[in-house]
Amino acid sequence: MTVEFASGPDVTRTDAGIVKASTWDVGTPERQRQAVEAVRAAWGSREWPHPGLLSYTVHVGEDGRTLFHYSQWTEQESYQAFVRDGRDARNAEIDAAVPGIERLGLHTYELYRSSSPDGPDEREPGTVVIVDVEFDGADTARQRDWVDGVFEALGTDPAPAPGGIAAHFHVSTDGTRVLNYAQWVSAQAHIDALAAPGNGVGSRTPQWERVQTYPGIKGGGVHRYTPALSLRPGDGKR
């Protein structure tokens, strides 16, 4: 069976070989709530689908219409087994409860680097900021070079944002994207960081300028979410 845990996924767990990330557009805050409850019901009424699925977390978008899904897997083969044997039944039940969900894409990532500004941070995240970066073609070296540049900018920033807890940078397995799963103490802390001097989160430094003007970036976005439902394999106790 599945069990809930309130703190969200352990992003840095070493047995997670890949991460699947996707976004659903459900339209309204009420349908966000309904969709989360539909996921809870569809998963809670079934056995855990595969031992290779380590965790599954649903996040509610601050925009009042989206859900961000983050699941950790041991490897791609486990996910493919889930698609063959369990995904359709769960999605059919969810779609029956909340018709018209628009699924906006699914991407596969590997965790590349994680950091907190001052080492391990015991503060509880109040919000998750998803930073999505898309490049104009596949290039695994470029993905990592851009992330390494962010770490250099963070490490040399004279006034780091006080509300940042940790940043977890993922690179897509197709070489075209980077996803930062950034944990903040609150949405307001992130808003304040964006309002501080500089272009986005970060001071006006040459290191941040290199990140922000990096060649080959063609798209992306920044969105705030709150983890609403986190599931992992349980011991059968409810």
Alpha-carbon distance between the termini? 8 Å
Work out the radius of gyration.
18 Å
Q: Indicate the mean pLDDT.
A: 92
Number of strands: 9
Oligomer: single chain
Give the helices and strands as they follow along the chain.
EEHEEHHEEHEEHHE
Mass-distribution shape: globular
Structural class: alpha+beta
- List the uncertain runs: none
Strand order of the largest sheet: 2-4-3-9-6-8-7-5
Number of helices: 6
Main sheet characteristics: 8 strands, antiparallel, barrel
% residues in beta strands: 35-45%
Task: Give the helix level as a range of percent.
Answer: 25-40%
Structure description:
This protein is an alpha+beta fold and 238 residues long. Helices cover 29% and strands 36% of the residues. The protein has 6 helices and 9 strands; from the N terminus they run E-E-H-E-E-H-H-E-E-H-E-E-H-H-E. It has an 8-stranded antiparallel β-barrel with strand order 2-4-3-9-6-8-7-5, surrounded by 4 helices. Helix 1 (29-44) packs antiparallel against helix 3 (87-97) and helix 4 packs antiparallel against helix 6.
Topology:
Blueprint: E1 2-4, E2 18-25, H1 29-44, E3 53-61, E4 66-73, H2 76-85, H3 87-97, E5 102-115, E6 127-135, H4 140-156, E7 164-172, E8 177-184, H5 187-195, H6 206-212, E9 217-233
Antiparallel strand pairs: 1-9, 2-4, 2-5, 3-4, 3-9, 5-7, 6-8, 6-9, 7-8
Helix pairs in contact: 1-3, 4-6
